[in-house]
Amino acid sequence: MKRRTFIKSISGALATASVSPAASVLAADKRISIADFGLKPNSRDDAVPALKKALAYCKQHPGTTLVFPYGRYDFWNTLADRDFYYISNNDDGIKPVAFPLVGFSNTTIDGQGSRFVFHGGMVPAIVRQSKGITLKNFSIDWDVPFHCEGIIEAVNQDESYVDIRIKDGFSYKVENNRFIFVGEGFENPVIKNLLEFDTELAEQAYMARDNFQREIQPVTTEIRPGVLRLQTKFASWPKVGNTLLVMQERRDWPAIAVQETSNTWLEQINIHHSGAMGVIGQLADGIHLDRVQVVPARHSGRIVSTTVDATHFVNCRGHIVLKDCLFQGQIDDGTNIHGMYGRVAEIHDKHRVTFELVHYQQLGIDIFKPGSQVNFSDKALRIFHHNQIVETQRNDAKYWTVTFKEALPESLAVDDVMDNMSWQPEQVLITGTRFAKNRARGGLISAKGNIIIENNYFHTPGIAIKIGSGGVKWYESGPVQSVQISNNLFDNCNYAKASSAIDIVPGRKSDVDSAFHQNVRIHDNEFRVFNERVLTASRTHGVLFVNNKIQKTEAYPMEATKLAPLQIDRSTQFVYSGNEFVGFDRNKKLVSVNEVRIQRKTGKNGVEVEA
User: Fold this and answer.
1) Does residue 62 have a cis bond before it (omega within 30 degrees)?
2) Where is the signal peptide (predicted)?
3) 293/271 Cα distance (integer angstroms)
4) 503 Cβ partners below 8 Å, 6+ apart?
5) At 191, is the secondary structure helix, strand, or coil?
6) Does the model's pTM come out above 0.70?
7) CA-based nearest residue to 458, from 276, 335, 552
8) Residue-level pLDDT at 611
9) Which of the residues 133, 188, 292, 480 has an alpha carbon 20 to 30 A from that of 32?
10) Dihedral (Cα; 252, 257, 260, 263), 10-degree rounding
11) What helix, strand, coil percent values describe the chain, rounded to 5?
């Protein structure tokens, strides 16, 4: 594959018009410096006023590269542009934005290795309704993070409390026996989760469970300066010396949001922290991440990077490329690539239907675009009808009334779902990327295009690669049609969740046997497993498992399982050959094909999981 998958247009000669007196000294090769607008590195001055002038110039002069001389730049939310944004799988609202790249063309932001430090609640960059945008060569961080970490000093199960010593660099206060997150210009009194991390390994502790606190907040007292006692119930009790993550509820401040754009490149960017996702793309046509790292900054003392997913892509089309990236320490998945179902809420006639966007963090995302090819699925997510959107009417952020070209079938019913097939990626390439030491999983993949996952490293507390769909709650669409998983190293995954390295599941829980996914080829990989779990597949047509090496390890304590390393259920055309198992008991049954129906339930995220 060529490095430049997308074609970037080059505009004409630099116009002479200017938006500031600095224009007379701007470079003739369309490279301008933020210094030309009065901002110097390492000054600790607010970069926003100078940046506004520079971006205004870039918008008027397509093809411009804005460079930042190497150093530190600080951004405050006070003077930043504000607008209301719907950001999928994050919380919507009015957001200050440092780099509001809205309506730009062929613009490059080159940090030249600089460190961008943000203060308070704000989004570093939103690329929206633009084309040919490149962001490169800078890091993103906050002086005061949006979460809190503490070293566990005492655990008392009888009296149901944990004492933690808050690490340097984290800010909080305690009022009326309640923990409150404190940042620059904001406070949040709601703890979402308390989760244990292994301090030495800097990863989620072995079999540590989430301790969600939404309904009842822990009774918090400061027993001495910097040491807090959190009195609450724990699903799994942590160990003294480990780190306790105190995670807040909101997903307000992703690092980079890419919306309704074409041809977006993110190159050599280090996202050390954000108060939501690292990179979130929605309705983007072509997005390429090259050497993007989501990882805590060195010497920061932090274990956590972003407070949810490292990357996430919703109804993006064209190409999605993740090349030579690193996703570590984020408090959810490394990447999630999917479409979004619209739920049938009301049927008006043979051509008109009102749809509902079900999850509150998907409101306002316009998946109902005229001219789009769509399909309809029933309550078991079996596709039964294809059509084309002719006209749409947005009733509000939750409901759309849609008119279709062809007559709708009489079998269409409320609670069936529609998927927009015109806004799905044609190609997904994930290569040379490391998924490690986060919470949750590596990659969640549910897209119709050609998906290649090769030459990657996975060391995740949950499933390394989950191919699924969510027909309830999140309403993430599927299925997959062509997936190649090859030459990857799966290094002792599932150390905090009993499951397989690769899990292929249908959408809504049902008793039907018909195939949901198809054509998943898994070959020439190395699996290092302590739990003897490699692959679980259900309702899939065409699974190939060939020439893989499976090495039994003692990296973590093994939990007994009745399932075979390769557990195939309600599936057809399973191909198995040339695989090498090392270190397994000779009497161990290695492959089970349609012999046992895998018991599953609908998890909290609306996706089927093992019961």
Assistant:
1) no
2) 1-27
3) 6
4) 463, 465, 466, 467, 468, 535, 536, 537
5) strand
6) yes
7) 335
8) 64
9) 292
10) -170
11) 5, 45, 50
